[in-house]
Write a sequence for this structure.
């Protein structure tokens, strides 16, 4: 009653043996079925033996599980030499009693069959090998070789069935490799005997480029990824890329980072794009996509963050030279180790290898931003679907790692590539900047516009920009009578505007002068009037004074008369009158 | 054709003084093993009495010996000498095939 109830997961979870192989454990959700046989089938050269050996080696190295390798084709020496290039030292492991190699040599010409027999010898050998080192993992590579050694197929089949049963009873996790047959998984129909887990490896050559794919055909008692997953044989062994299984669950950042072009930043309301988002710059040839990308890389480094630049068109030296010509010096950051340029032709490798290179470089370098210039070239490597799925995985991977990604893509209006790129990527990216030629009469100008920016509003204008010695400069928007004007039209407009402005200035000056004149005239008139007034005032004052004087004298004479003045005076007085 | 068969016969037919070294690998006392041993003893006594050395190896007791002679099937008869090494698997019930396998020319009765 006190026991905690077992959760359904622990009840039904099949015990698994982790392979340690990159990605395979993710697809199988933990590894191969523990203590049971797994069939790995595939055509020649697809890496069955390698997968099996890696399973053993990783088991020894990482999980401390000794292993037995029973090989029916290659001798122990050959195998050891073959996998030495992957850093697997089989001899050392043998010496450490962690690994046992047993080469089963079968030569029909040496063997005559007469009467009944069974394969107890094989069981005893295998059992002895397992018991001497306490092996937990066994690889039988390739057990089908038995069919070439023994003619009694009925015996052989029942013995193989018994062998798998016996291996299961021994509790060892086994990988059996088998060659792929026509129309069947294996040439000898081994899949009927191994019912727990079947992994199919496939090696396809499409357009001269080999793509290897892995699929789990069945896995009894466990869920697993059902897709075909590309895998690679690299210097470190096999890596499977289960990235399509990623869910849209990544966390997002609210940080804004600059695009490296101030004018472009201003076109976004939040002045840049989100950290960890993916940005696509599309444009026709020669529209400065790489320059924009380099500006972003430079800005990233300037912030003291690491940037990884995949150049699929230019060598690092060429890129640095070219960017220096537009005033962007990447060299110091390259020297400081903030910038890393990985240049390769897309056709050099299959898509998966590119993806793996990216994964590995990102894991090593831990960049804050990744630039891929351009992704459209990858279309030359694979079909559209493959490129799309690869880009999906790439973008998802970068997003999950919160790495800002910037891709450039060449589009051409002359064929359907434009649609292909757009369809392929546009739905995956968060921000889409389009650069294009604005072709007018006798000239081409570069225009830049934002087609989409998830999570923020942005300018709707097509901005003309120049690639100058100081980097990219966005020009102010000039709106003419018929919309936004660029290039020579912009110049014409400016000249016209200047002329108009001059005329207006002239006119204003003339009006000012006119006014001044009028003012002066008025002032003069006012002065005149004032003078006139003064004259009149003077006159009036004078008249008034005279009047007063006369009045006074009259008064005086009157009073004198009244007082009786002398007769002389009186006599004389009238004489003075005319 | 006749010549070559004669040559082959001449080369590989056991000399009177050559000793055959035979090894029979078995795994426990199974019916097949017992039958094989009985059959083998009979052939040897019939066709090369006194000129053979037979060793029976039980792999259940000495499993480490299986690898050396590349034993898969049980029972396996290995002709170690004369060279080259030849192997016959099964219970050795078919006399003719055993002779072909061992490259042994039966004595004319």
């Amino acid at each position: 009653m006190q026991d905690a109830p077992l959760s359904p997961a622990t009840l039904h979870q099949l015990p698994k043996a982790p392979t340690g192989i990159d990605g395979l454990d993710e697809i199988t959700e933990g590894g191969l079925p523990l203590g049971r046989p797994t069939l790995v089938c595939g055509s020649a050269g697809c890496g069955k033996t390698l997968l099996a050996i890696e399973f053993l080696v990783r088991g020894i190295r990482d999980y401390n599980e000794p292993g037995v390798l029973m090989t029916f084709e290659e001798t122990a020496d050959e195998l050891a030499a073959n996998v030495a290039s992957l850093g697997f030292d089989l001899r050392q492991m043998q010496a450490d009693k962690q690994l046992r190699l047993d080469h089963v040599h079968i030569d029909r010409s040496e063997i005559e069959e007469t009467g009944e027999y069974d394969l107890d010898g094989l069981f005893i050998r295998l059992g002895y090998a397992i018991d001497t080192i306490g092996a937990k993992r066994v690889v039988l590579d390739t057990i089908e070789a038995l069919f070439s050694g023994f003619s009694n197929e009925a015996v052989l089949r029942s013995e193989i069935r018994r062998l798998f049963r016996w291996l299961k009873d021994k509790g060892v996790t086994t990988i059996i490799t088998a060659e792929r047959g026509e129309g069947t998984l294996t040439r000898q129909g081994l899949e009927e005997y191994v019912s727990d887990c079947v992994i199919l490896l496939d090696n396809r050559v499409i357009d001269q480029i080999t793509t290897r794919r892995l699929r789990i055909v069945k896995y009894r008692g466990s869920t697993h990824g059902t897709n075909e997953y590309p895998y690679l044989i690299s210097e470190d062994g096999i890596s499977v890329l289960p990235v399509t299984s990623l869910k849209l669950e990544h966390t997002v950042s609210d940080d804004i980072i600059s695009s490296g072009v101030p004018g472009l930043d201003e076109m976004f309301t939040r002045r840049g794009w989100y950290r960890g988002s993916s940005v696509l710059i599309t444009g026709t040839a020669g529209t400065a996509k790489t320059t924009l990308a380099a500006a972003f890389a430079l800005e990233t480094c300037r912030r003291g963050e690491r940037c990884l630049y995949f150049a699929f068109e230019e060598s690092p030296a060429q890129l640095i030279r070219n960017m220096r010509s537009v005033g962007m010096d990447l060299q110091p950051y390259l020297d400081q180790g903030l910038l890393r340029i990985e240049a390769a032709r897309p056709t050099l490798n299959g898509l998966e290898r590119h993806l793996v290179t990216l994964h590995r470089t990102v894991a090593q370098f831990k960049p804050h931003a990744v630039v891929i210039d351009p992704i459209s070239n990858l279309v030359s490597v694979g079909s559209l679907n493959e490129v799309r799925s690869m880009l999906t995985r790439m973008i998802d991977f970068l997003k999950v790692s919160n790495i800002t990604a910037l891709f450039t893509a060449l589009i051409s209006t002359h064929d359907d590539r434009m649609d292909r790129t757009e369809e392929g990527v546009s739905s995956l990216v968060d921000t889409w900047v389009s650069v294009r030629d604005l072709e007018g009469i006798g000239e081409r100008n570069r225009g830049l516009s934002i087609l989409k920016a998830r999570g923020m509003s942005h300018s709707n204008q097509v901005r003309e920009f120049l690639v100058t010695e100081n980097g990219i400069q966005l020009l102010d928007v000039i709106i003419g009578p018929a919309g936004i004007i660029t290039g020579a039209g912009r110049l014409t407009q400016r000249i016209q505007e200047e002329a108009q402005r001059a005329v207006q200035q002239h006119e204003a000056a003339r009006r000012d002068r006119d006014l001044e004149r009028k003012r002066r005239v008025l002032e003069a008139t006012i002065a005149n009037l004032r003078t006139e007034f003064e004259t009149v005032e003077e006159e009036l004052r004078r008249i008034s004074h005279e009047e007063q004087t006369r009045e006074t004298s009259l008064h005086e004479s009157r009073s004198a008369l009244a007082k009786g003045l002398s007769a002389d005076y009186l006599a004389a007085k009238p004489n003075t009158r005319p | 054709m006749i010549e070559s068969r004669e040559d082959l016969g001449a080369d590989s037919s056991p000399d009177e003084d050559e000793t055959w070294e035979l090894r029979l690998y078995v795994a426990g006392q199974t019916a097949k093993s017992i039958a094989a041993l009985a059959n083998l003893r009979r052939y040897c006594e019939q066709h090369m009495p006194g000129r053979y050395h037979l060793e029976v190896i039980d792999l259940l007791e000495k499993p480490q010996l299986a690898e050396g002679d590349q034993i898969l099937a049980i029972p396996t008869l290995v002709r170690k000498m004369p060279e080259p090494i030849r192997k016959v698997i099964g219970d050795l019930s078919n006399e003719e095939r055993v002779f072909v396998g061992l490259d042994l020319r039966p004595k004319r009765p």
Summary: Residues 31-47 of chain B form the longest helix (17 residues). Chain B has four helices and four strands. The first strand of chain B starts at residue 20 and ends at 26.
